[in-house]
Design goal:
Rossmann fold; 6-stranded parallel β-sheet; 4-stranded mixed β-sheet; 8 helices; 36% helix
């Protein structure tokens, strides 16, 4: 993991290696300022680490996308509000050994915040998200992240039942190829190769398997 952290640093992203999700939560607390506005991207990892519970019960202005009873319109409004947050917290679908973040979104709010808007972006990712290169990152999305997330969200797509992307049935498929489902969650593909504002993106690598 340390080699990956060094590669991220070479790409102008701060990077930290910790052993457990408990350590990750403790480090995250030190990165947050009481009273600041915080938003999150959809992530199983954040739930597992305890980030959502921390934000709901801490001294933060949490833009809570998970609040019960809010309308779909309000959820979309909170997605937009998250683009102006002081801190945006998420995981990453994959992180290459040469220090690139690889993310694929359905709505696009997560990758939008990663690219521009929030003053600080904090990524928490388990060791299972580390891959050799972008080709391996693509395969990880098509065989692990998207199928499992579709199944978790109750989305009826080809990958949710087959366990892999439809495009893998075609020899010579392209990265963005997929099914034509209206509920497709692999819509926007973003590779973060470097960060122009040094240290704006901070990556916490955890020596545990977390999320999809």
């Amino acid at each position: 993991m340390q080699n990956v952290a060094n590669a991220l640093k070479n790409n102008n992203m701060d990077a930290f290696c910790v052993e457990t999700k408990k350590d990750a939560l403790s480090l995250l607390k030190n990165m947050l300022i009481p009273g600041e506005t915080v938003a999150v991207g959809g992530s199983v990892t954040l739930d597992q680490v305890g980030v959502i519970e921390l934000l709901k019960n801490g001294d933060y202005n949490f833009i809570d996308r998970y609040e019960s009873g809010i309308s779909p319109e309000e959820i979309q409004n909170r997605f937009r509000m998250g683009l102006l947050a002081d801190t945006f917290i998420s995981s990453s679908n994959a992180i290459t050994k040469n220090g690139c973040l690889y993310n694929v979104d359905g709505n696009g709010n997560r990758v939008a915040a990663l690219i521009y808007g929030p003053k600080q972006v904090i990524i928490i990712a388990g060791k299972n998200k580390i891959v050799e290169d972008l080709k391996a990152a693509e395969l990880r999305i098509k065989t692990i992240a998207t199928p499992k997330n579709c199944k978790r969200l109750g989305i009826k797509s080809y990958c949710s039942t087959s366990g892999k992307c439809l495009s893998l049935n075609n020899q010579g498929h392209e990265m963005c190829d997929g099914c034509n489902s209206d509920s497709r969650i692999c819509c926007s593909y973003v590779v973060t190769a470097s960060q122009r504002v040094k240290g704006r993106i901070k990556v916490i690598l955890v020596n545990e398997d977390l999320g999809y």
